[in-house]
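Exercise 7b. Backbone tokens:
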């Protein structure tokens, strides 16, 4: 047959994995992967369980399989699995990663596990737990012993979950990644080798790989001895030649081939060229190179999990809530034209009949329903914490949401107020009235405070955290006011601080009161369903804030776009009455909301 090598690759992949609890040996030569001693090419698609409603895990994996994939790549987000120091959750909802991996095995898919501890992924803090930021001088992604102590705890906990799922134990995991794109960040090779040793000491006995851009510098800093080289991305002979030059004793593969791209607030939705993508995939298939599509399906950064980028200390680019990514399988699980183009191309190189494309989950419209004023932030402030000067929210054991800083003006009563640095979006109020807003991006952090008739005017600075930086040199990204506040150059002292995580408990216990209804307003409304299905809530009439449906946090919205529709999966809904709560930082008028069928 024309592509006899690929025939063998895929035959090994699907038929060996189909049998339950078969123990396998996944190894490699200098140029190829070997499954039980026979060559295998991995065609993988990235699906991260934290971003996909658990009721759809099987559907999304089946979709990847029906596109021609024989493997799933998956990140594990450390901060999602360990929300507080020593408190791990591997059992509830989307956190049950072992179940996700078992579904992969059920569907005959190998697994490339990407546990970090740092992963990037446009995820808050790149997957690192924000509790680390309570340590004032913490250094991450290096040999800082305080960081390593937390890493080791994570490795032990995660190893207990994945050890039985290694291919050497009858599971589908064939490779484990060490860190992520470290060559774009640092050069602490002892740190990378220590990570490898941690995994080995905890019984992880499959091959390891690293993933870096295809340059001499990045691969030199990012790869370690004995680890397979992943290229982000590998798309031509030159890329793979660089990998061979760095380490001729291991194979290389395209660990992230990009069918789409990310989108920040204020940008247009990212759209990528399908023709160029197909040319890359054709090259990889014809040259027998394994590859992984990042991502085959992106999903949604529900709640406050979306991250941000920064190219300088005064730049800030937060990611939108949707992680649609212009991927082959869109946010709601539907196949796109790109999906069918890839399916046709991959189908030319495989010896078996690719399964039929499964049906996407149903999506519905919901007629417009009225929203009503409910309460405001100012009627729901917690007990204050005294602080001589403002401190970041992490210092108050708060990892997300809003934080209000309040003080009385004593000597300087008006003039130029400067916040250094606000992370990330702040409302400045004087005696309960909005003066101005400040956005972190651009370094414009000064507003003019007007004169007041009050003897001791009350200043509030309400700060919204918008996602920690997940890539580059500015990862240490504490939220709230991170330094000081000055008025006409004089440092303001003696603050009352009100941390508000906006978690389910906070939202459930909101006190309904519209007597002080201004900036920072909550609205509520209901709609009724006879049957549940996916939908998107159209937030086009609202300013900036967060939406909850039956207590589930759909994520952030912002009038600057591009995203105006927030994905609400069926498992967030119920037959009968459904309750919607909206927090809008910028307006105090209620508008109807409707459910629509698409992201755009």
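Sequence design result:
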């Amino acid at each position: 047959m024309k592509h006899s090598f690929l025939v063998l690759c895929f035959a090994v992949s699907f038929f060996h994995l189909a049998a339950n609890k078969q123990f396998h040996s996944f190894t490699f030569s200098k140029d190829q992967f070997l499954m039980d001693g026979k060559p295998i090419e991995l065609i993988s698609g990235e699906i991260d369980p934290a971003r996909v409603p658990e009721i759809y895990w099987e559907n999304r994996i089946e979709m990847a399989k029906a596109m021609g994939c024989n493997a799933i790549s998956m990140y594990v987000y450390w901060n999602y699995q360990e929300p507080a120091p020593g408190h791990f959750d591997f059992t509830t909802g989307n956190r049950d990663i072992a179940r996700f991996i078992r579904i992969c095995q059920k569907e005959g898919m190998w697994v490339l596990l990407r546990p970090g501890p740092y992963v990037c992924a446009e995820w808050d803090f790149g997957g690192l737990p924000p509790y680390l930021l309570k340590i004032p001088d913490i250094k991450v992604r290096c040999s800082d012993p305080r960081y390593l102590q937390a890493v080791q705890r994570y490795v032990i906990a995660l190893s207990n979950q994945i050890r039985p799922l290694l291919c050497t134990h009858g599971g589908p995991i064939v490779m484990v990644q060490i860190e992520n794109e470290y060559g774009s960040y640092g050069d602490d090779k002892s740190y990378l080798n220590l990570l490898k040793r941690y995994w080995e000491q905890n019984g992880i006995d499959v091959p390891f790989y690293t993933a870096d851009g295809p340059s001499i510098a990045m691969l030199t800093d990012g790869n370690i001895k004995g680890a397979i080289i992943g290229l982000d991305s590998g798309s031509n002979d030159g890329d793979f030649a660089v990998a061979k030059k760095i380490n001729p004793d291991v194979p290389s593969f395209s660990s992230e081939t990009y069918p789409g791209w990310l989108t920040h607030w204020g940008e247009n939705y990212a759209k990528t060229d399908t023709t160029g993508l197909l040319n890359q995939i054709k090259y990889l298939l014809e040259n027998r190179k394994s590859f992984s599509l990042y991502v085959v399906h992106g999903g949604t950064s529900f709640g406050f999990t979306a991250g941000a980028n920064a190219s300088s200390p005064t730049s800030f680019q937060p990611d939108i809530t949707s992680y649609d990514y212009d991927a082959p399988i869109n946010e709601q699980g539907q196949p796109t034209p790109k999906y069918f183009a890839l399916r046709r191309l991959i189908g030319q190189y495989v010896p078996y009949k690719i399964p039929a494309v499964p049906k996407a989950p149903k999506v519905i419209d919901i007629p417009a329903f009225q929203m009503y004023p409910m309460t405001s932030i100012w009627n729901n402030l917690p007990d204050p914490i005294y602080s001589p000067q403002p401190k970041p929210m992490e210092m108050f054991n708060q990892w997300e949401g809003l934080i209000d800083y309040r003080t009385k003006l004593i000597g300087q009563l008006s003039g130029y107020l400067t916040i250094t640095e606000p992370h990330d979006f702040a409302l400045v109020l004087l005696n309960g009235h909005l003066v101005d807003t400040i956005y972190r991006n651009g370094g414009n952090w000064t507003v003019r405070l007007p004169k007041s008739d009050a003897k001791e005017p009350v200043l509030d600075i309400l700060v919204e955290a918008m996602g920690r930086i997940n890539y580059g040199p500015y990862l240490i990204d504490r939220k709230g006011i991170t330094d000081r506040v000055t008025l006409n150059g004089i440092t303001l002292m003696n603050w009352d601080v009100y941390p508000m995580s906006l978690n389910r408990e906070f939202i459930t216990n909101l006190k309904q009161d519209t007597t002080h209804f201004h900036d920072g307003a909550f609205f509520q409304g209901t709609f009724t369903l006879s049957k549940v299905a996916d939908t998107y809530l159209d937030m086009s009439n609202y300013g900036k804030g967060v939406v909850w449906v039956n207590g589930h946090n759909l994520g952030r919205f912002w009038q600057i776009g591009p995203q105006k529709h927030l994905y609400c999966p069926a498992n967030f809904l119920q037959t009968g009455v459904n309750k919607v709560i909206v927090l809008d930082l910028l307006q105090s008028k209620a508008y109807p909301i409707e459910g629509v069928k698409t992201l755009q």
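Instructor comment: The radius of gyration is 25 Å. The longest strand covers residues 415-423.
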